[in-house]
Amino acid sequence: MRKLSLREFTMIGILAALSYVCFALIQFRITLPGGDATSVHLGNMVPVLGALLFGGLIGGLGGAIGMTIGDLFDPIYVIYAPKTFFLKLCIGLIAGAVAHRVFHLEQQTDRKKLTRGAAWSAAAGLGFNAVFDPVIGYFYKLLILGRPAAEITLAWNVFASVTNAVISVLVAVPLYLALRPALRQYMHRVDSSASGE
User: Fold this and answer.
1) How far apart are CA 168 and CA 84, in angstroms?
2) CATH number of 80's domain
3) Is 196 a domain residue?
4) Taking the model in full, what pTM does it have?
5) How many Å separate Cα 86 from the centre of its chain?
6) Which residues of 66-104 are buried (b: 16+ CB within 10 A; e: fewer)?
7) In which domain, by residue range, is 74 found?
8) What is the pLDDT of residues 74-122, one digit of tens each?
């Protein structure tokens, strides 16, 4: 595995902070029987946005760290922190792989193809989460809380995961399209300064 640069570590930190805010502070919590909860939030948008802009590893780590911290600070979600880290890292890795290996977004100049590629990439990462968050969550709760709790919360977790996926695609893609030109211009200036032009 390659070493991350200081710039990449900085971006992971910024994405982690944004992910934490989008999860912990911008959420609609749904209290479930037995003291459990699920929520509709914008946290899943961050690993996708980061993956589209900077690659899957940076986006995935940023989103995973931020949302895991959100879980650790919440007494209801604290037991789900390991599951959260794994799933949010996967969102970024999948979205980044599709964006940069399938659609080659960093080289794309056609606006329609760029939008389509970004949307499919976001949908791939978030689609994975919409399926595997409830499935892994079910078995996780089965082991920790028992069968009744796992069965009661499954339908709500499916609803929340699908809703979060749709909202995150609708927010991440326009944000990516808006931020991409400014980021490319900034990176060009930084690279020009570094090369002494």
Assistant:
1) 16
2) 1.10.1760.20
3) no
4) 0.93
5) 11
6) bbbbbbeebeebeebbebbbebbbbbbbbbbbbbbeebe
7) 6-30+38-190
8) 999 998 999 999 999 999 999 999 999 999 999 999 999 999 999 999 9
